[in-house]
């Protein structure tokens, strides 16, 4: 049975049940073809009015969307596993804005779709921000796009070794957030980490202090495998070290805590290792800002994104916001 479409021209498209929909997982599974077709056109769907009570119910609905749940391995931000298929969304401090990005675009293995579930909305703020990457690509200075496409993007990331005193300091001073490799890869075994890096086609080296550095080169744009559309698909703006991306407080704290750019949690360069200028990254940020919209969460909402077509972020918030996520491939 098809779901009710409130406005197919909206972004995101809002879908609702016909009647009370006592079994939201079954309703979504029955409408899988409708959901897939709308998602390919719009890139973002908001399912509202379904009785999705908690993480377990969300996991069942996410499975109804189709695809295989994906692990979060080698990511930049802290998450907590809620169940085998579900994680918390990023646990970075609520006071900071998260720039828009395509999930795991700095790796060769990334989700096709990403589903967010609002278990508890924020008291104020906390919107999930979204942007259509097709519109972003059309709006960036063509000379900047050509430079990115010609040279590609090199992602350089460091993961710290776990040291109790340093981890205790991070809890007291949230401006200093830096993922450990044990947390990012879910293991304390260097052999397992190295195996994961090879599977993800990332180069790596262990530093003398036990920290891990990884890097790889990827294109700035891709062609969508089903729609054939060319898309701006990367994490250039949120991983570039500049005041606008990070905000003044985080930007200045990194100047204080790190001796060189290679020690930062992450940085991007062109594929040949040369610097991306603030003017170039600013052109991209301007295009993103012009097309960004925010989703005001209601309890029980489910937001489904085509991870290639739509980038997402998070606004600062107050209160005990809790949003869960499931990443899907295929």
Fold and architecture overview:
- Strands 1, 2, 3, 4, 5, 7, 17 and 20 form an 8-stranded mixed sheet that branches. The protein has a 4-stranded antiparallel sheet with strand order 6-18-9-16. A 4-stranded antiparallel sheet has the order 11-12-10-15.
- The chain is 31% helix and 26% strand.
- The mean pLDDT is 94.
- The chain has helices spanning 24-30, 32-42, 55-64, 133-139, 142-151, 164-172, 181-185, 190-199, 236-239, 243-246, 248-257, 278-291, and strands spanning 4-5, 13-16, 44-47, 68-69, 87-88, 98-101, 113-120, 124-125, 128-132, 153-159, 203-206, 212-218, 221-223, 230-232, 266-270, 293-295, 302-306, 310-314, 317-318, 322-329.
- The radius of gyration is 20 Å and the shape is globular.
- It has 330 residues and is α+β, with helices and mostly antiparallel strands.
Q: In angstroms, what is the radius of gyration? A: 20 Å
User: Ends: how far apart?
Assistant: 22 Å
**Oligomeric grouping of the chains:** single chain
Q: What structural class do you assign from the helix and strand content?
A: alpha+beta
For the report, how would you describe the main beta sheet? 8 strands, mixed
Q: Give me the count of strands.
A: 20
Query: Can you count the helices?
Result: 12
- Helix amount: 25-40%
Q: Give the strand content.
A: 25-35%
Overall 3D geometry? globular
Query: Unreliable runs, pLDDT <50, ≥5 residues?
Result: none
Q: Roughly what is the average pLDDT, rounded to an integer? A: 94
């Amino acid at each position: 049975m098809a779901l009710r479409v409130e406005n197919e021209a909206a972004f995101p498209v809002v879908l609702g049940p016909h009647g009370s929909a006592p079994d939201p997982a079954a309703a979504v599974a029955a409408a899988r073809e409708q959901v897939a077709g709308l998602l390919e056109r719009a890139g973002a769907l908001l399912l509202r009015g379904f009785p999705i009570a908690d993480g377990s119910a969300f996991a069942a609905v996410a499975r109804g969307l189709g695809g295989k749940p994906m692990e979060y391995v080698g990511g930049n931000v802290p998450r907590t596993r809620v169940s085998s298929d579900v994680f918390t969304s990023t646990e970075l401090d609520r006071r900071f804005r998260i720039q828009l990005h395509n999930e795991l675009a700095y790796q060769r293995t990334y989700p096709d779709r990403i589903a967010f579930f609002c278990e508890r909305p924020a008291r104020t703020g906390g919107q999930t921000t979204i942007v259509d990457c097709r519109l972003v690509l059309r709006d960036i200075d063509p000379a900047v796009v050509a430079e990115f496409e010609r040279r590609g993007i090199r992602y350089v990331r460091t993961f710290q070794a776990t040291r109790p005193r340093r981890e205790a300091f991070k809890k007291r001073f949230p401006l200093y957030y830096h993922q450990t490799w044990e947390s990012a890869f879910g293991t304390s075994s260097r052999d397992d980490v190295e195996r994961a890096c090879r599977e993800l086609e990332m180069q790596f080296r262990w530093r003398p202090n036990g920290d891990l550095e990884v890097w790889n080169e990827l294109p700035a744009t891709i062609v969508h495998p089903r729609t054939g559309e060319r898309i701006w698909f990367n994490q250039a703006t949120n991983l570039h070290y500049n005041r606008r991306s990070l905000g003044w407080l985080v930007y200045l704290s990194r100047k204080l805590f790190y001796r060189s750019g290679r020690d930062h949690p992450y940085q991007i360069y062109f594929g040949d290792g040369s610097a991306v200028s603030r003017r170039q990254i600013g052109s991209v940020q301007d295009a993103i800002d012009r097309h960004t919209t925010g989703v005001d969460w209601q309890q029980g909402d489910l937001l489904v994104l085509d991870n290639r077509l739509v980038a997402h972020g998070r606004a600062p918030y107050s209160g005990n916001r809790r949003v869960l996520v499931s990443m899907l491939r295929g």
